[in-house]
Amino acid sequence: MLCGLLLGLAASAQGGEFIVGAGTHLLNRTGDVAPAMAMAQQAGIASLRDDAWWSSMELQPGVLHTPAEWRKYLAEQQRLGLGNVLILGYGNQFYNRDAKPIAQTVRNGFARYVDEVTQRLKGQVDYWEIYNEWDIAKPRLAGDADSRAYLKLVHDTAPQVRKNDPKALLLAGAVTTDGIEKGFAERLVQGGVMNMVDGLSLHPYVHCAKAGGGNTPEHWAGWLRDLSQQFDRLAGREVPLYLTEMGWHSTGDRHPCGIASNTQAAFLARSFLLAKTVPAIKGMWWYDLVNDGDDPADPEHNFGLVRQNLSPKPAYAVLKALSPLLRQGVFESQATGADNSYQLLFSLGGEQQLAAWAPGRTRAVTIHAGGPLDGPVRLLDTRHPEAGSVDSDSHWQCQGEQCSAQLALGEFPLLINLGKARWLPPTAAQE
Fold this sequence. Notes:
By secondary structure, this protein is of the alpha/beta class. It contains 10 helices and 19 strands. This is Beta-xylosidase.
């Protein structure tokens, strides 16, 4: 028996096209970046995120230059019509041995770097992100992980960027899961970070949170919904959220936190769809586009949508199939059943699209709609995304204006085309 929990959102809640993004490590690469960027564009990815390292720009004390690799990367990005996020960050060897910009001398050097990079790349960047994962204390970035030091950096950096590149938007935070759980993100909001920037960026990885299903997209989305509500309460207004890193690595049983590549693909589909149900989330950048290496047991080598040789993993084809809905579809409502099945309704191009899945074992679930509907159920099965939208073996059965069809739901979402028909959420009475 299903118990319908309905969540309705106004179409305007998304505030524009949802950003489907991916992280890259291409900006500082000396080789040809065009093939990887072309694959991103072909998958419907709209924005790429990369590091505009201070250390790459200031190779001699006091002498700043724009690396040739950056110019090549940005030119190719512009040619392909891709958007971007560039990170202002990390230390420089000439300033207290790569220390975070906390001491005044390091801050002064960082400010000069910010001034130069934002002036030189003016008009070529959609989002500047102020530093990356400040909440982590790393030996090579020795320094204070306290939120006050980071808020001071944002306070000093934001006006520089606004002045030099006024059309670009500003993100702050890039807070890790550990930082979120320890209250770092909340302290930023309480400290007034949203008075200085346009969005709060988060890196809410859950791949190692396996206890109680904590690493699943469904658990993850519920956590993010609660976080968003808490941030809004603290700020007294909606806090726009940008998930500038998120993903699961496909190391399988070679790593305690690993999952199989097929599961990675299913998790990608469900996480992107569920991200659109949280009104404050404006976009998500999958980490990352290309595997960072060839070691099948190394997590950092297995987050990618494609392998080092650019051969696609299952997740790539899934994102390619879903990206039109993710980018332009409007989330309307959802129902979560007592049997742990999910139905999410979207509108796209004047038609209704229902995403439905059931984590765990495959089971039969009845889909209800207000007709007229007849013939086979037309759907896209994300387990076989290359097939596109097809007529399934299931058929609509109607009594008057009440139509239903039984479908086998599993871990991969089905994208069911309802056309102009009205979706009827499952209720105990219908079942």
